[in-house]
Design a protein that fits this description.
By secondary structure, the chain is an alpha+beta fold. The protein has 52 helices and 29 strands. The strands form nine sheets. Strands 14, 15, 16, 17, 20, 21, 22, 23 and 24 form a nine-stranded mixed β-sheet that branches. A four-stranded mixed β-sheet has the order 3-4-5-6, with helices on one face. The radius of gyration is 42 Å and the shape is globular.
């Protein structure tokens, strides 16, 4: 604890005050002296110049020139040294012990590898700490990878750079030690290793012996073995001499590995390998370390925890010559098997010792990737514990080129250089650093010359200058405002940039105060732009500049890019009514778009108010301005600030070749439908805006030109204000409160409940309630009618006032204010109406009733009040958060510091309130220090909050190496696998979130709000970032399924109900029905969150998991699985389209020919009677006769289902192939189970291996399968997966699959609707994101305490969530506190107090949702935009998007309906409704026909359907042949039976064929674009009333069908005559229902189309015609209006 405090004080507090300089006791003297002298020079040089020399610009120029030269020199040398390390050549290498230089390589020798700019590792001994575990985020390329690259370097022909091979394996970091360099040099040469000479240096021998004794005394054995000081045993000496005499390759691994392998050669099976981690104590694990004397040693673990220690030499010769003290770099990384050691090693006999603790420092190879690492880890090992400085090691000399052809030898290390100076990334950064340092010097000295600072403040200002300049050389890492771990190169430029801005601001304000170019302006009693105003602002900027050290210590200024994004976003939001930005680029785009719109409108406004207005008239130019203002505001409010999708749409239109190229590159991956959906949605929005903006502009122009605002200005304004207030209060306060879970925190149930509120389990999508329609409708009225009228009225009145008094106002300023204010107010009303009614109410009350004399016009008052109210809301949220968090009756102390800080926070309440005011003014978070009750203000952030675009990268088989998939499978942890459900939840929210917000299902909302979605296992935080008119941009952060204890307590708090609480203070008197008790109501008011909806329905996946061990525990259950495995293989063989090719393949037939021999049986030990149903006891194996006895029937049935016949005899090629594949599949399962299938754990391991596709063919009898790999991919692999599903179904109905037909149909159905895949397969993710109904997987859960296999079943359904709205300032404050605590204060305690549960603020859930590594969410979505048009219910409520095409279709459809209705009405003599077949007359005429007998198979044999060719005017038509519940509909009689009552007379029937005649009173006719057509109405189908129709059972055979079309909307019916089908109109007719009366022998089917056919035979007197078909629309197949009509009629 003490060392950590010292580290924070030294590297955090002191370095922040000085700009980066601090004394580091673990660095070299040269480094500390260089830092000190540079900082003193930067501090004293400007101070002495100012104090000694007279003030002049020449002195300032000299100062700038000196600083520029010094910085240019330092930056150039630093850049050249790093380039030397990256690309330089090692020219010298010396032995630190012997002091003899080694042979220097020739300059032109290409056989020797160049030094690749290696990463150096420094080991330092720690006296009391255990070995440090290697962090996964700092893992680098180790010794074993170097060993793996050696064969590749040899086989690749010309010698290749090690970095090229490293990058081929996907790594940018490498550790290469001295031994590895020697290994790489010698790997390309074949040398003889000299025999051990036995000569050793005596002094080094004594030192080695003493070190061994000291090491042994620290270990566990009391006495060393007798052979410690002796020579190696004779057997070892003989083996070493034999190996030394043989010719072999050079050393290919560090000598310690050879030593360890030689020691373990005597024991069979010894596996000598480099240790995977520092905790690897497996047998044969080799570790490297330095002892007290600096001697590099290795330690090899042996049996039972023992081990062997030895010094490490670079070669056999060096080992013999006392190279034990040679210092080199080493480490322990991934394990790699070591071949037999080569080379003579005459070493001491090893001895068991205990390995001491070590710590590692690493420096990356490539600095551009360096910010991904934690630079703090470079010094963490020395600063957390007091350690000794490591003795000097062997260093390399590099060529440093001074001039072309002239170089000098430089002996330096990259690690020391990085500790000395920050590395810049390129030439541009070096130029920027030199330029900034010179600009800081010039501007700072200029302010000194101006005399702004006197006395001690001169020295303070010089200190600020020095800190800004020094940060360009060695910056504060990490800085208090740094958002990330490790080296942040952006933060180095923050101080000089802010200093230059402040200096320019001071100089500018002073110049403005002296010159006074603007006349003073009085606004709300404040005098602006006066001399005192400018001088006061200058003094504030001066004091702020002097406080730079403390400002940067507290982290009150963000880094430069964050500040730029924040400023642009604030200007756009509060100045022009824009939405939040998602990146600096989008902030620039959004503000540029707003400025362009304002510039366009400014000209119209200025021209309108400069011209005189006639009395009681509005100029046309002003009306044009109003129309353009409303139209542009509407369009801008519907556009996202991110132009990515818009640019993609433009690029696809203008540059299609670029789009095709991007599609070609993405074809290798599974297609994602989301980009196309987004482009389509944006296209619909643009098409709609094209029409709506024109309509809005025209209507606004007309309203403004009507002078209604001038004529009624005394009354209209108050009417609009009252209407806006009443509608806003009812819509945004009363309705949301009545819909909350706890209305007003008094009632225990919502007053307005959704339909799903009382359902225990939701089974469908949420139903749209009447109050949701009312809420959406009132919002539309508010956005598109009331607030535009309010703004237009204010614009007209203010413009009329300005024109009436032109001398009182500055026209240019007023035109600008009117343009900006109108744009901002209209866009705000369109985007976020819930906050507008309060702003309007405060404006009216304050400036019309309280202080009318301060009013500057209603438009400007409203504009400024909107700014004030937004800051007031922020202040209110901050105060609620603070009071809730520190309330003494619910405080939760997470640590001792919390209890200590709680009483000290009480006296500082006034300071806390001032901080709350400042933080609300600048929109900065107010965060608790270390999670305690002490609050401090953080730096300003945009609404997005996080500076980085972090989102989860799922680990699956597409982005991992094959060896890791088969062995370790790094993506198999629960968090990685479960993240896909949050990704699917994000996609679901993308379709429905914006529409649900518009319908009020989440309550009131605004930009920056945070919500928690909680269900049984899903807990996600949804952060709303951008809220526009019909669009919402959000980010979802998914928490762990099985979270920590603290998370579970907070989840219980938000999911449990408080209705049962009956307490009142200390007693329990109960409560009224549906009313909360006193304690419950009081507790709910002291929470930073509230439940807004308890039954929010969203589409997702229900997850069910079954333990595979319990389902396969006994042998009978495994036998069932194997049987289904075999049957699934047979199914996939028979269904394969390549079956004929396999049966005719000569190689496969030859390999399978022996199985037909009598007495053949495969007696593999993996086959047994307990699990194989077809096991042959007589032959002790699997034989073809026994296989056919069990499975031949299934094979023959599957073969019979093929379209092409195939031979099915027992000795046919098909049966032989099935037998061979079934044997192969079972043998693969046994091989994956390590031939231990009798045990459950190996069996499950093998089953999981096969399930994920790990088939290992080890038997020569199965190698025939390599003739076509589809036999494995398309037959065996899906067979094992399908077997698991069938085994699952077996538990629900064991006898379901006894019949082959049932089993075959079940497998086919599962193939069609079910995806069975491993969760690491990219197809699994694609299936979930494409909303596959069901999925199945086998998961291997490997936790700390469990190792089990689970069968995961997913079913897509609608899930129920609780929506909890969290105070957004609570979320921002806790996020900021975590960032400060973990990054700047370096608190790495996993059980720190700031993440302990606090139910009143959901502290654990919020903190765990931070970006990694601050938090630990299992999924963080990218910024996702949801559009209102994608919500199906809202689309059905409002209709689709308005576009030119939609308008044209609607007009054509209306004209066709009108034309048809008028023509039919005129021909029939009835009114329009009747003629449109919707009146009662039509139904009566149809019911007067005699009944028609039921069609029978005898009299319907001749019926048939022939589809009508679709034309351009024919839309789909629904069919009434389905009943909606899946059952076939009953046969309908035609004509329908008469209703009770007298029947009117009918004319006599006519015999024989009837010629076509013109339409008369008894016919319905119409004339369309394709000609005329007539429909008979009065006559029966068979002619007269008294004669049965052609469908009667008189033996007549009708040749056609009859279609009856029912018009439900107008209550009419039509009968189509098939004789006139050729002249049917091509325009679509809006007919809602159709009845199929089929004369086919086949029974009627659901959704079967019916055509208008000839309904009579020649003998019945009805005309003949060709059959036709009318397609059925999907959206009208189940019409709710059809069934009551049919029930009433029939």
């Amino acid at each position: 604890m003490g060392s950590q405090v010292l580290q924070i004080l030294r590297q955090g507090v002191w370095a922040s005050l000085t700009g980066g300089w601090f004394f580091d006791p673990h660095q070299s003297t040269f480094s500390n002296c260089f830092h000190l002298y540079v900082w003193i020079f930067l501090l004293t040089f400007p101070f002495l110049l100012y104090m000694v020399l007279p003030p002049s610009l020449m002195v300032a120029g000299v100062y700038c020139l000196v600083v520029a030269v010094i910085f240019a020199t330092i930056k150039t040398v630093n850049y050249r040294l790093h380039a030397m390390f990256d690309q330089g050549e090692i020219v010298e290498k010396r032995n630190s012990t012997m002091g003899e230089p080694e042979e220097e390589p020739a300059q032109g020798d290409s056989n020797l590898p160049r030094d690749p700019g290696v990463e150096m590792t420094v080991f330092r001994k720690v006296s009391s700490t255990p070995p440090v575990r290697c962090s996964s985020q700092h893992s680098v390329f180790g010794f074993n990878q170097v060993s793996e690259l050696l064969p590749r370097m040899d086989d690749s022909g010309p010698l290749r750079d090690i970095k090229e091979l490293v990058r081929e394996q996907g790594s940018n970091n490498v550790i290469v030690t001295s031994a590895d360099r020697e290994m790489l040099k010698l790997s390309s040469q074949e040398k003889l290793i000299a025999e051990e000479t036995g000569k050793r240096d005596r002094s080094s021998n004594v030192r080695r012996t003493q070190a061994i004794r000291r090491r042994h005394n620290a270990g566990s054995n009391p006495t060393p073995p007798a052979s410690v000081m002796g020579s190696p045993p004779s057997s070892l000496q003989e083996a070493q001499r034999g190996r030394a005499a043989s010719h072999s390759r050079a050393l290919t691994l560090p000598s310690a590995l050879h030593f360890a392998s030689s020691l373990l050669l005597t024991r069979a099976g010894a596996n000598v390998h480099e240790a995977c981690t520092f905790d690897d104590t497996s047998e044969g694990a080799v570790h490297y370390f330095y002892d007290e004397s600096g001697v590099r040693r290795s330690y090899t673990f042996g049996l039972a925890g023992g081990g062997y220690e030895n010094p490490v030499g670079q070669q056999g010769e060096q080992a013999a010559n006392g190279a034990w003290d040679r210092h080199s770099h080493s480490s322990s990384f991934h394990s790699a098997d070591v071949p037999e050691a080569a080379g003579g090693l005459n070493l001491l006999q090893p001895r068991p010792v205990v390995l001491q603790g070590m710590q590692v420092r690493r420096v990356p190879l490539e600095i551009p990737e360096f910010d991904l690492l934690d630079q703090d880890s470079l010094h963490e090992s020395q600063e957390q514990t007091l350690m000794e400085e490591a003795p000097p090691r062997a260093q390399h000399s590099y060529k440093y080129w001074l001039l072309p052809g002239r170089w000098t030898s430089v002996r330096y290390e990259r690690l020391a250089l990085l500790a000395l100076l920050d590395r810049t990334r390129g030439l541009v950064e070096n130029i920027l650093g030199v330029g900034l340092s010179s600009l800081v010097a010039f501007l700072g000295y200029l302010l000194l010359l101006k005399g702004f600072f006197t006395d001690i403040w001169v020295f303070q200002f010089c200190l600020v200058i020095a800190s800004c300049q020094y940060s360009l050389l060695k910056s504060v890492q990490p800085d208090a405002a740094s958002p990330m771990h490790g080296h942040n190169w952006v933060i180095a430029y923050s101080r000089p940039v802010y200093f230059c801005i402040c200096c320019l601001l001071i100089w500018l304000l002073d110049a403005l105060g002296s010159a006074q170019p603007f006349p003073p302006v009085s606004l709300y009693g404040l005098t602006l732009f006066s001399a005192s105003f400018f001088f006061c602002a200058r003094d504030v900027a001066t004091v702020f500049t002097l406080c730079f050290p403390f400002v940067f210590l507290l982290g009150l200024l963000p880094q430069v890019n964050t500040c730029l994004m924040y400023l642009l976003e604030q200007i756009d939001m509060h100045g022009f009514g824009g939405t939040a930005a998602t990146s600096p680029l989008t902030a620039v785009f959004s503000l540029s778009r707003s400025l362009l719109a304002a510039a366009l409108l400014y000209g119209f406004c200025l021209g309108a108010i400069k011209t005189p207005w006639p009395e009681q008239h509005v100029p046309v130019l002003f009306s044009v301005f109003c129309g353009l203002l409303v139209a542009l505001s509407y369009h801008l409010s519907r556009q996202s600030s991110d132009p990515t999708v818009l640019w993609s749409l433009i690029r696809s239109k203008l540059f299609p070749e670029l789009e095709e190229r991007s599609l070609e590159t993405a074809r290798a991956e599974l297609p994602d439908p989301l980009p196309d959906k987004m482009r389509q949605s944006v296209r619909e929005v643009l098409h709609s805006d094209l029409v709506m903006c024109v309509v809005i502009a025209v209507l606004t122009f007309a309203i403004s030109a009507s002078t209604v605002f001038i004529a009624l200005k005394s009354v209209l304004g108050f009417v609009l204000y009252a209407l806006a207030g009443a509608v806003g209060f009812f819509t945004h306060y009363l309705l949301p409160q009545l819909r909350k879970q706890l209305p007003w925190f008094c009632l225990s149930q919502p007053v307005l409940k959704p339909l799903e509120y009382s359902q225990y389990e939701v089974r469908g999508a949420a139903q749209v309630m009447w109050f949701e329609k009312l809420y959406a409708g009132l919002q539309c009225v508010e956005k598109y009618l009331i607030y535009p009228a309010v703004v237009l009225n204010a614009l007209t009145v203010d413009a009329h006032t300005i024109v009436s008094h032109p001398d009182k106002f500055c026209l240019y300023c007023r035109a600008l204010l009117m343009t900006v204010a109108g744009l901002k107010l209209l866009r705000s009303a369109f985007c976020c109406p819930p906050q507008q009614y309060l702003t309007l109410a405060f404006t009216v009350l304050l400036f019309h009733f309280d202080y009318p004399r301060l009013s500057q016009g209603f438009l400007l008052d409203y504009f400024l009040m909107s700014l004030f109210c937004s800051k007031l809301w922020d202040l209110l949220y901050k105060l609620r958060f603070v009071l809730t968090y520190i309330a003494p009756w619910q405080i939760t102390w997470g640590s001792a510091f919390h209890a200590f800080a709680q009483p000290f926070a009480v006296p500082h309440s006034a300071m806390l309130f001032i901080q709350a005011l400042l933080s609300a003014l600048f929109s900065t978070p107010l965060n608790p220090l270390l999670g305690s009750a002490v609050f401090i203000m953080s730096y300003a952030r945009p609404l997005k909050f996080w500076e980085r675009d972090y989102n989860t990268k799922r680990v699956d088989h597409s982005n991992t190496r094959l060896v890791t998939q088969l062995d370790r499978n790094p993506g198999a942890d629960d968090n990685n696998l479960n993240s896909i459900f949050y990704e699917h939840l994000t996609r679901s929210l993308q379709h429905t979130l914006c529409g649900d917000l518009v319908l009020g299902r989440w309550g009131n909302y605004g930009p920056g709000d945070c919500f928690v979605l909680a269900s049984d296992y899903l807990n996600a935080l949804v952060h709303l970032i951008e809220v526009g008119n019909g669009l919402v941009t959000f980010q979802l952060r998914g928490l762990e399924f099985r979270g920590t204890y603290c998370q579970q307590r907070e989840v219980e708090a938000i999911t449990e109900g408080v209705e049962e609480d009956e307490g009142c203070c200390c007693c329990e008197p109960g409560h009224l029905p549906r009313v909360l008790s006193f304690n419950a109501a009081f507790g709910q008011r002291w929470l930073a969150w509230e439940v807004t909806a308890s039954k929010y329905v969203l589409e997702g996946y229900s997850i069910s998991d079954n333990n595979a061990a319990s389902m396969l525990q006994v042998f009978d259950l495994r036998k069932i699985l194997i049987t289904y495995y075999v049957k699934s293989i047979i199914y996939y063989v028979s269904r394969s389209p390549k079956l004929e090719a396999w049966l005719s393949h000569e190689g496969i037939a030859t390999a399978l020919r022996p199985v037909r021999a009598p007495g053949y049986a495969d007696s593999d030990p993996t086959f047994s009677l307990s699990v194989d149903e077809d096991y042959d006891l007589r032959l002790s194996g699997l034989s073809l006769p026994s296989f056919c006895a069990v499975h031949l029937e299934w094979i023959q049935y599957c073969a019979s289902r093929r379209s092409q016949p195939v031979d099915q005899d027992w000795n046919s090629p098909l049966v032989t192939l099935c037998f061979g594949l079934c044997v192969l599949g079972r043998r693969a399962l046994g091989t994956a189970s390590h031939s231990m299938s009798a045990s459950l754990e190996p069996f499950l391991y093998g089953l999981h291996a096969l399930f994920k596709g790990d088939f290992r063919i080890t038997s020569p009898r199965d190698e025939w399968v390599f003739a076509d790999m589809d036999l494995l991919h398309r037959v065996v692999a899906p067979g094992v997966r399908m077997a698991l599903k069938l085994h699952q179904d077996h538990f629900t109905s064991p006898d379901e699959y006894e019949e082959p037909a049932a089993l075959y149909d079940a497998i086919a159905a599962n193939e069609e609707r079910l995806v069975i895949s491993h969760e690491g397969d990219p197809a699994w993710r694609s299936a979930i994101l494409s909303n596959t109904p069901s999925l199945l997987a086998l998961r291997h859960v490997l936790d700390d305490a469990s190792d089990e296999y689970k069968i995961i079943m997913l079913n897509r359904r609608h899930l129920s969530f609780r929506v909890i709205k969290v105070n957004r300032e609570c979320v921002r404050g806790l996020w900021a506190g975590q960032q400060q605590e973990l990054v700047f204060l370096r608190n790495r305690n996993p059980e720190r107090g700031s993440i302990q549960n606090a139910k009143q603020a959901l502290r654990n859930m919020i903190n765990s949702s931070c970006d990694q590594p601050l938090g630990y969410p299992i999924y963080v979505s990218p910024l996702t935009t949801s559009l209102a048009g994608s919500h199906p219910q809202l689309r059905a409520l409002w209709g689709g998007p308005v576009s030119l095409g939609a308008i044209a279709r609607w007009l054509l459809h209306s004209w066709e309906r009108l034309h048809k209705g008028c023509g039919a009405g005129c021909n029939s003599g009835g009114n329009v409704d009747d003629s449109d077949c919707g009146g009662g007359g039509g139904l009566t005429s149809l019911s007067n026909n005699p009944p028609l007998a039921q069609p029978t198979p005898e009299n319907t044999a001749g019926g048939g359907d022939q589809p009508l060719p679709p034309g351009p005017g024919w839309g789909p038509r629904p069919s009434l042949s389905g009943s909606g519940d899946g059952r076939p509909p009953p046969l309908l009689q035609w004509p329908p039976p008469r209703l009770p009552g007298p029947s009117p007379a009918s004319p006599a029937p006519t015999e024989g064929p009837r010629p076509s005649r013109p339409p008369g009173p008894g016919l319905l006719s119409s004339e369309g674009p394709s000609g005329k057509w007539t429909l008979g109405v009065r006559k029966g189908l068979g002619g007269s009333e008294g004669e049965p129709a052609s469908g009667s059972p008189k033996g007549s055979t009708p040749k056609s069908q009859v279609r009856v079309l029912w018009r439900v909307g107008s209550q009419a019916a039509q009968v189509c005559s098939p004789t006139n089908l050729s002249s049917l109109p091509q325009a679509p007719l809006d007919l809602s229902l159709s009845l199929d009366i089929s004369t086919n022998a086949s029974p009627p089917r659901a959704a079967q189309d019916i055509s208008c056919l000839d309904s009579s035979a020649p003998e019945s007197g009805t005309p003949t015609g060709a059959p036709g078909d009318w397609p059925v629309p999907a959206e009208e197949r189940e019409s709710p209006a059809a069934q009551p009509l049919l029930e009433h009629q029939y």
